[in-house]
Amino acid sequence: MPRTTHRTRTLALGAVLTSVALAAAGCTSGSSPKPGGQNSPGTSADAANVNGGGTPVKGGTLKLLGNSDVDHLDTASAYYSVSYVIERAYARQLFTYPAATDPNKVNAVVPDLATELPTAANGGISADGLTYTIHLRQGPMWNTTPARAVTAQDEVLGMKRLCNPTQNSVGAPSYYEGVIKGFSEYCAGFAKVKQTIPDMKAYITGHDISGVTAVDANTVRFTLVKPASDFLNILAMPFSSPAPVEYLNYMPDDANFRQHTISDGPYQITSYTPSQSIKLDRNPAWTKAADPVRDAYVDHIQVTEGPDEAAVQQQIQAGTADMEWDTSVPTASIPALRATKDPRLGIYTSGISNPFLIFNFQSPNNGGALAKPAVRQALEYAIDKVAIGQIYGGPSLNTPLDQTLPPGSLGYQQMDPYATPGSKGDAAKCKSMLAAAGYPNGLQLTDLVRNAGKHPAVAQSVQTDLKACGVTVTLDPVPQGDYYGKYLGVPAIAKAGKWDISEPGWIPDWFGNNGRSTIEPLFDGRTYGPGATDWGDVNDAQVNALIDQALAASDETTAAGFWHQADQRLMAIAAIVPFESQSTPVFRSDRVHNAIFEPFSQQYDVNEIWLSPNS
Amino acid sequence: MSADMTADSGAGPADTVDAARSTAPAGGGTSAAEPSSGAIEGRSPWQLAWLLLRRDKAAMISLGFIVFISLVAALAPLLAHLIGYGPTDQDRTNGITVDGLPVGPSSAHWFGTDNLGRDILVRVIYGTQVSLLVGVASTLLAVAMGVLVGLAAGYFGSVVDTVLSRAMDVVLSFPFLLFAIALVSIYGSGLGISVFVIAFFTWAAVGRIVRGQTLSIREKEYIEAARSLGAGDLRIMFVDVLPNLLAPVIVYTTLLIPIAIVFEATLSFLGLGVVPPTPTWGNMLSDSQDFYQVAWWFPFFPGLALLLTTLAFNLLGDGVRDALDPRAGRLFQD
């Protein structure tokens, strides 16, 4: 099964999705040896398995093997986490996340194309928090002929291309619209443009986003609508990459575009065969001196697509491939790998809550019982979170989670407002609370479940737990590809009572200061509507107000306080039943050294790996 | 009327009687037709067929197995009670490892457990219910449709035949799985839709056979006689033609049941069949996909049940065909 290859926004929008819930996803390596430090086998969830000893060697071909293709190669639209595995090699942003094993550093943005992080002290951020002035470093070049410097104008163009009127526009417009001044207006105008290359080119060259300007070749200025303490996180999204002017000569991310990508990273795409292979070679225009975050040890990166999860795993174990591309380590084979302390297995603790139980607040079934907090609070006690963790590989990969924010997100403070013995559920308590809430005879609920992967098992586990509490659950299986787009994201279906509960998954688009990518999309009731990701219509005035305050906070510490309060409030009203936070297992071949887990792509940073010589 | 109508004395039972008489003694000393040697007994064609079938050991063993699993299906709740687990009970203490892996066969779980700690023996037993129910129900539905359409096409001929035959061709050329997936995504999965989908894709084959037989039967002189006596179309079709079709229809029905059972398992395997947590063999095989390397018992027992059941129905079907149509070569000589 493919690993959760999608950032969840896409999932939520129901575009092309396959599976989030396989999302054995994870991120930060907890307390961990530094690269170059001691190599520890992946027996503990907190052990980073870097294989960093020895002197880095340049050269060789890093072979990635997996099942499916990228969603896009165009940085404006690529949204799968697997796409970012290679984007990190060919596309740079103003800011990015470092290759680090220190959990305190890995989710904090660092300069990439920019010379430094803008702050109020260095004049990068204005006193009102609305203007960001960012200086680009000298040295980064496009691999054009001849090679050309990456300029502030390229960054402006990159932002302008985001809301092109084709289907290959930015996957997460909400990070830009309503944040950057003039962005919504620019997009509204762009939406009316005919989808031809000359028309789109004319619009882009003839119109500007008022909040994005190139002061000079090396200075770009962003003006915001309101303060956003996570604005640098937004600029670190691959969407925010600069774009070379040559891109105006193509339809965004069409087949022709994909054969002509332009790189400012250490590697360039030299060969791309859809759904078969991607080959990257060194970019001659790149210099290490102008790149503070990438080392680029290997000479070539070869991505091969086709085999399924089990076949990929076998090939990596045999050494004929080096890393997983979009697949994951099969859950069933992890116990054996751990038992033999296989050093090639790395398990990385996570910032991902997946899956979790949502309630349809709009459901007319049971007399609208699910809209009552007391009913939902009773159900909070029903779930055996350990049993659900076992479906995803047991305690080495799963930690029971009792709040909406998983560890790794800003504002996380551990809490367990509905504690049960050993997190295994308390049917008696659920039953008595349900009776007290006015439902002594239980409830009849319909559980909307994806009919593939581990989803049916999760639903059946929930069904068993709720049965013990007197709640009868009927499963309603739907095709995986229709789950978000045709069911969860459709208010008419929710209001008709077609579902009462469901178990979706969610991977935030970034970690750290990421409330805009977790609580806001999942629980801001004002966004409820077709395609929204507040699927159950959680709409709480207090939560909405806290979201506004957190997003407008001038600094991270203030934002953290608001996110924490929102988390508390969401659990107080029992908005969802969280199950667990998950860790990501990653497997590498023997010859892979310096494997540094990169939360953003849920995979090792291909720029940092070096291969055993003579292998 | 064709010129050769006098050359053949009729199809169906009449044929069978003659043929059975002529071949039974040739079968060897233990002829079914001569338990009381010498005395000539009157036997109906069906009695003769049954006598022939009883001599087919493979068919009789298969029949015994089918009776056995039918009993198992009927007594599933009782058996589950005796074993001590319900089909959806999750034994989270002994039925699953800490890491969430199934536990192998033991005294507590004879066939082991699945990935949710459920007893595989009990689930295989319950799976029998669904397999038999869907297998038999969809086959009966398919046969009913096939007989009606085939009879009409063969009997009326001309435009009716053309239209119905082309309809059958269209159905036979439909991609089964694509259609099943489309139907299920529109109507949702479930037992009823499974039965319908399977029947829809198998009736046309029955229809073709029935049409072919009807084409030849309607030319027989006794049909001509019936018609000249003033019998209506419906009476001729159902009273004069249909009984003579029973032999091929029965044979085909027996052979269709295993096909339907496999279809059902396929649908369940793809998540398009019976809704979980109801155990079916296909569901169980599907669940076992991620675990077959570490838990052989998980796919083995439902797979074995599926294999034995389809094999039993197929062997029985062969036996029935041999018994009803002795001119065909026997699968196993005795």
What is the structure about, briefly put?
Chain A has 615 residues and is of the alpha+beta class.
Descriptive tags:
A: 615 residues, alpha+beta, D-Maltodextrin-Binding Protein, domain 2, Dipeptide-binding Protein, domain 3, five-stranded mixed β-sheet, 16% strand, globular, disordered N terminus, B: MetI-like fold
Describe the structure in your own words.
The complex is a heterodimer of chains A (615) and B (334). By secondary structure, chain A is of the alpha+beta class. Chain A has two domains: 8-316 and 586-611, D-Maltodextrin-Binding Protein, domain 2 (3-Layer(aba) Sandwich), CATH 3.40.190; 355-578, Dipeptide-binding Protein, Domain 3 (Dipeptide-binding Protein, domain 3), CATH 3.10.105.10. Helices cover 26% and strands 16% of the residues of chain A. Chain A contains 19 helices and 24 strands. In chain A, strands 9-10-11-1-12 form a five-stranded mixed sheet, with helices on one face. In chain A, helix 11 runs antiparallel to helix 13 (427-436) and helix 18 packs antiparallel against helix 19 (556-572). The longest helix of chain A is centred in the last third of the chain and has 17 residues, at 556-572. Residues 1-47 of chain A have low confidence and may be disordered. With 334 residues, chain B is mostly helical. Chain B has a single domain (54-324), classed as MetI-like fold, CATH 1.10.3720.10. In chain B, 64% of the residues lie in helices and 0% in strands. Chain B is built from 13 helices and no strands. Chain B has helices at residues 13-23, 45-54, 57-74, 76-83, 120-156, 158-173, 176-187, 191-217, 221-228, 233-241, 246-269, 281-287, 297-324. The longest helix of chain B is centred in the middle third of the chain and has 37 residues, at 120-156. The radius of gyration of chain B is 24 Å and the shape is elongated. The two termini of chain B are 42 Å apart. Mean pLDDT of chain B is 82; it is low at 1-35 and 329-334. At the A-B interface, helix 9, helix 12, helix 14 and strand 17 of A face loops of B.
